[in-house]
Amino acid sequence: MTSSVSPARTDAAPMIEACAVQKWYPNGFHALRGVDLTVQRGEVVVIMGPSGSGKSTFLRTFNALEDFQQGSICVDGIVLSDDLRQIDAIRQEVGMVFQQFNLFPHLTVLENLTLAPVLVRKRPKAEVEQQARALLRRVGIAEQSDKYPGQLSGGQQQRVAIARSLCMEPRIMLFDEPTSALDPEMVREVLEVMRGLAAEGMTMVVVTHEVNFAREVATRVVLMADGEKVEEAPPEQFFSNPTQERSRRFLDQILISNP
Amino acid sequence: MTPLLRRLRQDLFATPADGLVTVLLLALIGAGGFAVLHWALGQAQWAVIRANSTLFAVGRYPLDQQWRLWLLTALLAAATGLSWGMLRSHPRPDRGGSLWPRNDWMAVGMVALLSLALPSLLGLALPLQLRWWAIAALLLLLRWLAGRFGPLLPAPLKRCLPLGLPLLYLLGMVLIGGGLALEPVSPSQWGGLMLTLLESSFAILLCFPLGVLLALGRRSDLPLLRWGSVVYIEFFRGAPLITLLFLGQNMLGFLLPGGVAPERVWRAAWVLTLFAAAYLAEAVRSGLAAVPRGQLEAARSLGLSTPQAFTTVVLPQALRVALPSMVGQFISLLQDTTLLSLIGLMELLGTARTVMANPAFLGRNAEVYFTLAVLFWCCCAALGLGSRALERRLNPSTLA
Ligand SMILES: Nc1ncnc2c1ncn2[C@@H]1O[C@H](COP(=O)(O)OP(=O)(O)OP(=O)(O)O)[C@@H](O)[C@H]1O
Ligand SMILES: [Mg+2]
Q1: Interface mutation vs chain A, best among B221, B291, B295, B302, most A CBs within 10 Å
Q2: d(Cα B200, Cα B204) in Å, to the nearest integer?
Q3: If you measure CA to CA, which chain B residue comes closest to A89?
Q4: For ligand 1, atom 29, which residue shows the shortest CA distance?
């Protein structure tokens, strides 16, 4: 790795430092208009905002699934650039959980977990399998390890997806609306797993509309609208006393459906 | 009324109109079947097939070297029996399955029946008939052994077994063509079913990786690669195979330095390969399009490199989707080998034409063509059955 990696890797340095990030999609759409965000180690940052405000786009720049044109992003001391080796290095440190789970349907649950650690980290298969089983136990689906993803419920699939990311032993976890595709009764089991993760001190950035989760778990809540960061505050303040008119309108909307 | 009769009545004679259609169709099928049988058993003179059975099988392959082909056949039978047994003894973890499903008993019956009946119908000499029986016995014996004792083999050995198949293919090439201390047999002496199978298997095996690469190239971010793949695919899909075959015969001679232009047989095999690859690329492309974008993103976000993500996540899913249309391509490739007779190769149709041109067998065209059709039908049916078995094995019982 290059020199930009090691010196910055002290515990005091922030885990994610995004400065004035601007992104245009190839069709010219200006999706991010100079967004800043700093996430310290062990923090849980929740990003909220109306549909189309650029939450997913922003989140996906952290592991280079989306590129950006201006500004800078530094993840765990590694500056994001076009250098492919750095991108691969960052992706090993950053786990991501998607709204649509994106499990590999042709592999069993256990194989979904062991694929990347064996292939990317070159760890011995037996050892990874042991770790994978432990992770599956932790997210409460130990008995399903030989099934295929298509044989599981949505909530179970999302928990497998979380375990799959954890199996790479990431330092940061990104969640893009992890519960939006789930039936209400399954939302709780997924949030439970995420709460556990946060309690263990995992650094997390979560795009979600789950107000209760944000209230209880988040260290900070960020509101985005039209590609900009509108408000950033601790949850108590964000939900009871937002400073911006835009935040108030947004909160009125989601608090009606989400008391 | 028995349940069977009741069901028949419900399915076939539910209304008067249904009944009428059923009766008419039955009459048609019956009349057609009767006519074919009447012809095959009564009027047809099968001497033309009996007298030329070796020619149809291997062409003018030198008699004193034919032991090599017998050896190859035995090896292929052994490999078939072994793979068959191993597959059955290792059912998929999520599905289970018996070591001897009913289909397998039917297949065993077919093998036994064919090996017993066909050689004697063809009027082969007794030693030759015995060889066929021995080969069939070998196949069935290995099927049983692999099914019974396969699971006891050490795991590393089991993982290496599939590597034997490409080795066997290369060995087969050597056995057929000579080399490695074997007397060379020039490709101009190859013919019959052997040549048909050689050409089509060569093209099928090579067009597969080529087609996958072309399909990936067509989706690549590199403009040169993308346009190169598009031009290639459209060129080969735009021209009739027969013109490409003639072009290959004439042009490869100019393109390559004098004397090294490959034998006609190999030139034709390469043209077939390049041609089939273009169609295969389209089949694979439709498979790739069916894999959701999130799959690649998930793989990449786990740290897999693009090649790793494609080989372990995207391609396995894409090929599963593309399998039926790929097998369709393989089947039409097999049938397209008949065009090789037009550029003077002695594959099945070429052999048939020389046989029919022989004054001794004047007017026996129907018998010859009928035999050819049955042979092709058997090969295509085998491909189709194999692919369906593969599909069943590959598809997890419920895909998300
Ligand atoms: N590939 C693309 N090309 C062009 N525009 C895009 C593309 N992807 C997203 N956009 C646009 O960028 C904006 C931000 O999209 P993004 O997916 O980040 O929103 P979001 O806040 O995650 O919304 P949601 O809550 O619906 O998921 C949207 O207006 C969307 O239409
Ligand atoms: Mg989104």
Answers
A1: B302
A2: 6
A3: B303
A4: A52
Chain B contact residues (CB < 8 Å to A): 93-94, 292, 294-295, 297-305, 308, 312-313, 316-317, 320, 394, 396-400
Is A63 touching ligand 1 by the criterion CB < 6 Å? Answer: no
Closest CA to B383 of B341, B342, B333: B333
* Protein residue with least CA distance to atom 31, ligand 1: A52
The ipTM estimated for the assembled molecules is 0.89
Q: A220 — phi, psi (to 5°)?
A: -145, 150
Report the nearest atom of ligand 1 relative to the CA of A55: 21
Distance CA B291, CA B191 (A): 42
Distance from CA of B158 to the nearest CA of A (A): 18
Q: Cβ B303–A164 below 8 Å, yes or no?
A: no
- List chain A pLDDT tens, one digit each, 259 residues: 343 444 444 567 888 999 999 999 999 999 999 999 999 999 999 999 999 999 999 999 998 899 899 999 999 888 887 777 788 888 888 999 999 999 999 999 999 999 999 999 999 999 999 999 999 999 988 888 888 898 899 999 999 999 999 999 999 999 999 998 888 888 999 999 999 999 999 999 999 998 999 999 999 999 999 999 999 999 999 988 888 888 888 888 887 766 5
Report residue A96 as tokens: 């991501």
| Amino acid found at B289 | A
Nearest residue in chain A measured CA to CA from B304: A120
Q: What is the DSSP string of A23-84?
A: EE-TTS-EEEEEEEEEE-TT-EEEEE--TTSSHHHHHHHTTTSS--SEEEEEETTEEP-S-H
Domains held by chain A: number:
1
CATH number of the domain at B191-400, please? Answer: 1.10.3720.10
CATH code assigned at A193:
3.40.50.300
Q: Determine the atom of ligand 1 nearest the C-alpha atom of A49.
A: 21
Q: Domain residues for A178? A: 2-257
